[in-house]
Amino acid sequence: MRLLVTDLDNTLYDWVTAFARSIRPMVTELAALLRIDEDTVYAELKSVHRRHHNSEHPFAVLELDSVARAFPAATPVELLTLLERPLAAFNAARATWLRLYEGVSDTLGALRARGVVIVGHTEAIGPTARQRLRLLGIEHHFAGVYCLANALGPHPSPGWQDKGGVPLHVVPREERKPNPALLRDICASELARPEEAVYVGDSLTRDIWMARRAGVCAVWARYGRGYTDEDWATVVRVSHWTPEDVRREARLRVSATGVSPDHAIAGFGELLGIVPTAAARPVRRRVRKVG
């Protein structure tokens, strides 16, 4: 094995718990500031996320209808100050709840030492995914991150500049999970054959079914469903998913009935017993499209 392709959310860290428990205090602060009920805030967040087809649209709170009504003449820079408390509540909660699963950092380091090339794969937008890897202190383990294309507006802070970091490889939205062509393209970009690669992810429907169809060793991170019903309900409450998205997911579950992984792991560290030492030859990458 020469290549490890890893899902990010709920494979390396518990994204559902961290996101839900960051959203709730922010919503409480927004409702108090704007003098509206929390249900309205949740509904408006969902509307913004649907507009951008992204449940983590950066600075979504600046686009809430209630914010526009409360501060009609404010510029984006001024809104950052006016909404400082809600944004600070989100960041403080994220600092508490965004944590790696046990053994992730050490395992990534050990695999790199064996000569395994590690790339991430996510349906989050690239800058958001890269920021999480940086906050968690594991960005340096990655040769690249493959992410969905998503148009972003200018950052509201004047003079802000992207610090760069791990390369972001943007893939077409039509190649989203569980299209096996996506995974085969990732292998080709990293100059690895599918049989030389391992894919690890928490979703049987999206990750494992895709990997099996692509001819890649499929490792199911079965620990990735350890979040609470309350936290999942919060994510759904603000998600960008439309009725068609829900129907598509139902169709995928039917299509993937009976899928089974090559391996199932109860902790990320178990990958060390699955991914043997890579061939001692340099890897030259064929970059597709970098955002």
Please provide a written account of the structure.
By secondary structure, this protein is an alpha/beta fold. The protein folds into two domains: 3-15 and 99-152 and 164-273, HAD superfamily/HAD-like (Rossmann fold), CATH 3.40.50.1000; 18-97. It has helices at residues 15-34, 38-52, 65-70, 76-82, 84-97, 104-113, 126-135, 180-189, 204-214, 229-238, 243-255; strands spanning 3-7, 117-125, 144-148, 168-171, 197-201, 217-221, 263-265. A seven-stranded parallel β-sheet has the order 4-3-2-1-5-6-7. Helix 1 packs across helix 2 and helix 8 (180-189) crosses helix 9 (204-214). The longest helix has 20 residues, at 15-34. Residues 278-291 have low confidence and may be disordered.
Give keywords.
Rossmann fold; alpha/beta; seven-stranded parallel β-sheet; 11 helices; 2 domains; 291 residues
